[in-house]
């Protein structure tokens, strides 16, 4: 059940270090790259996972409580929170079971452990795919709201939003099941990497286009009010900073994991690539960190949601 254990299917095969890969610390009579291996304590891993769980549960509760937030945009944000919640829960569950097994506090048959491992792997993989999909869906929704503002409510209707949400969840479950079933095929890794690249390109193109339109609009206002030129420049810098932060966090948190997948295809036996493979748990930790940051970027910036969130927290006391 461990991330580094032999019983893991897709994620376990990604984390396995090929036999030819040298260890982190080489004896004096051996040559090879010196690897930087970042050790993530289980306590830190579990702590980050629990923070993500609490944070995303609050987002889901706030959106469910406030009827004013029952719109396609907030439904996409809610589904993103559910996906991030599943990512964190599955990783916390796996690590907890691993620690219990290692401590001898939980004894069970190997077949049961294998079945549980398969379920958790499917949950993790499906949650990752759905999380990326909903990040893309949010980008598309915001793009339509800016470029087709007058037609937005006729384009992004609740039935269409529900169809999109349902399609994403079904596709995530089916794809994760196939990925786990055929984890040892190169095509699986290539599909995952291609999917990440597609989402990255989609988000970059849409958000850059949105920023360009916003700057164009600000320049039009500045021409009408010449004294507002400094404000326009400040808006451009703020927009660029926001865009850089949004895409930067996405790439920083997800990029290393998919770099790992790419290297599994390109150079599975190369010593330098082996150094990357040793940090697989760090890459999963970064994905959990993304689950913590997502609500800050997409949910908590809404004043209406923050107000509802305060009511949820006060009611829980």
Automatic annotation (TrEMBL):
One of its GO terms (molecular function) is ubiquitin protein ligase binding. Keywords: Cell membrane, G-protein coupled receptor, Glycoprotein, Membrane, Receptor, Transducer, Transmembrane, Transmembrane helix. The chain crosses the membrane at residues 73-93, 119-140, 161-181, 187-214, 235-259, 279-300. GO terms for cellular component: plasma membrane. It is a multi-pass membrane protein. Residues 55-298 form the G-protein coupled receptors family 1 profile domain. The keyword Cell membrane applies. InterPro entries: GPCR_Rhodpsn, GPCR_Rhodpsn_7TM, Melcrt_ACTH_rcpt, MSH_rcpt. GO terms for biological process: adenylate cyclase-activating G protein-coupled receptor signaling pathway; intracellular signal transduction; melanin biosynthetic process; negative regulation of tumor necrosis factor production; phospholipase C-activating G protein-coupled receptor signaling pathway; positive regulation of cAMP/PKA signal transduction; positive regulation of transcription by RNA polymerase II; sensory perception of pain. Receptor for MSH (alpha, beta and gamma) and ACTH. The activity of this receptor is mediated by G proteins which activate adenylate cyclase. Interacts with MGRN1, but does not undergo MGRN1-mediated ubiquitination; this interaction competes with GNAS-binding and thus inhibits agonist-induced cAMP production. Interacts with OPN3; the interaction results in a decrease in MC1R-mediated cAMP signaling and ultimately a decrease in melanin production in melanocytes. This is Melanocyte-stimulating hormone receptor. It comes from Ursus americanus (American black bear). The lineage of its organism: Eukaryota, Metazoa, Chordata, Craniata, Vertebrata. The gene is MC1R.
